Amino acid sequence: MHKDIETKLEEILSLVKKCPENLQEKCFELLFNYYFSNQGNQSKKSFDPSNENPSQEQITPISETTGGDEIKLNQIHTKVRAILKNGELTLDDINNLFYQENSEFKPLYDDLKSTKMADSQIRLTLLGSFENALKDGEFKILVEDVRSLCDTHKCYDSANFATNFKKSKEFFTEEYKKGTTEIALSPAGKKELVKIASEIAR
């Protein structure tokens, strides 16, 4: 019994080290509470390959979970699960990028692994779209939410905000223009998202 606890603590500490330093304490608390409040049932269930692509009806509503939980495969929208199939992005990557708090997915990432403001803006657009898609399957984000994310990460360049989108127009279904309120990812954008998300998560 003590050996099991020791092993699980080692696993938790290993995951915590992957988080940004300023989030490690919160990450440890979430993972610790998750395991020891579910010991003996859900936390010990292994992934069943035969259920790799459960139907929409099998998704567990996030609103039924408590805050601070690790994200489980059956709580992610089927459209997001589809991009996990080739193995370039994993469930572990998602848990390194986001966590659950009550009924919401929230970001864990802090370091965008880019020093360029334009690149950081696009990365935040991709990650913000991903965060939304986890719940509803739509890889979209409001322009105002992108501005807010850029402001939080200190990469908001108001003079070049529109230009940055136009230079990366292949990542979006429509070219950014004055009056655009929402941005949706194109197939190329989703491919770039997988690349960026896996880079930041690891």
Based on Cα principal axes, name the global outline: globular
Could you name the CATH class?
Answer: Mainly Alpha
Spans of 5+ residues with little confidence (pLDDT < 50)? 40-67
The largest pleated sheet is described as: 2 strands, antiparallel
Radius of gyration: 18 Å
Strand content: 5-15%
- Class of secondary structure makeup: mainly alpha
Order of helices and strands: HHHHEEHEHHEH
Count of DSSP H/I helices: 8
Quickly give the CATH architecture.
Answer: Orthogonal Bundle
What CATH calls the topology is: Arc Repressor Mutant, subunit A
Q: Name the helicity range.
A: 40-55%
CATH homology-level superfamily: Winged helix-like DNA-binding domain superfamily/Winged helix DNA-binding domain
Please, how many domains?
1
Termini separation (Å)? 32 Å
Average pLDDT = 82
Structural features, described:
With 202 residues, the protein is mainly alpha-helical. It has a single domain, classed as Arc Repressor Mutant, subunit A, CATH 1.10.10.10. 46% of the residues lie in helices and 7% in strands. It is built from eight helices and four strands. The strands form two sheets. Strands 1-2 form a two-stranded antiparallel sheet. A hairpin with a 2-residue loop joins strand 1 and strand 2. The protein is globular and about 60 Å long. 25% of the residues are buried.
